[in-house]
Fold this sequence. Notes:
The first copy, chain A, is mostly beta strands. In chain A, 4% of the residues lie in helices and 50% in strands.
Amino acid sequence: MDKINIQEKLNLITDYWKPIIVGELNKQQVRLVKIKGEFVMHKHENEDELFLVIKGCFKMDYGDRIVHINEGEFIIIPKGVKHRPIADTEAHLLLFEPETVLNTGDVKNSFTVNSPEKK
Amino acid sequence: MDKINIQEKLNLITDYWKPIIVGELNKQQVRLVKIKGEFVMHKHENEDELFLVIKGCFKMDYGDRIVHINEGEFIIIPKGVKHRPIADTEAHLLLFEPETVLNTGDVKNSFTVNSPEKK
């Protein structure tokens, strides 16, 4: 019931592609992540996922097309849809998604964060 | 799977306290609302609710204390907790909440919006 300052939480993040949990409600989580470079193509079988750009911009690669998402914009990836975020330069994102979401979905590799930290 | 520009959607809002639906995922909705003045004290029996300030600032009145929320900050109101948003000047908010949420919760009055528009 106290407020959360997004920038203060972003300041705690030191690694790219490692989301932190900054809020929980209705079995959903608010996560923050800093990204740079190319992520792995993956999908979430049972969860839709929202990406909101707090700072910078990034591209969502669906395989057959790419959508550019800028600061102040968000995109929702429906369950089952393959996607891969790409950031040419550092970008800061806010994610809304079920608490069950694994960041790499159906893929397990060096990007996988099994238990994001709560900060 | 296309992006949503928050400012473009805010530009469609003409009335205070009338949320519009701009995104849906996992039975939750992303809503946008412009607020000014004092809302009605209410609670949501079964839903937690998130308020994120896009522009301006507002106060959340819990009855026994008030929290000031500024641009770039958010607050989560747990289910069952009485709350009342107050905006001394116009503020623009993004809400993340279950699709079942009625804006005035357990109260019905002139602020009640039974079916927010999708825009």
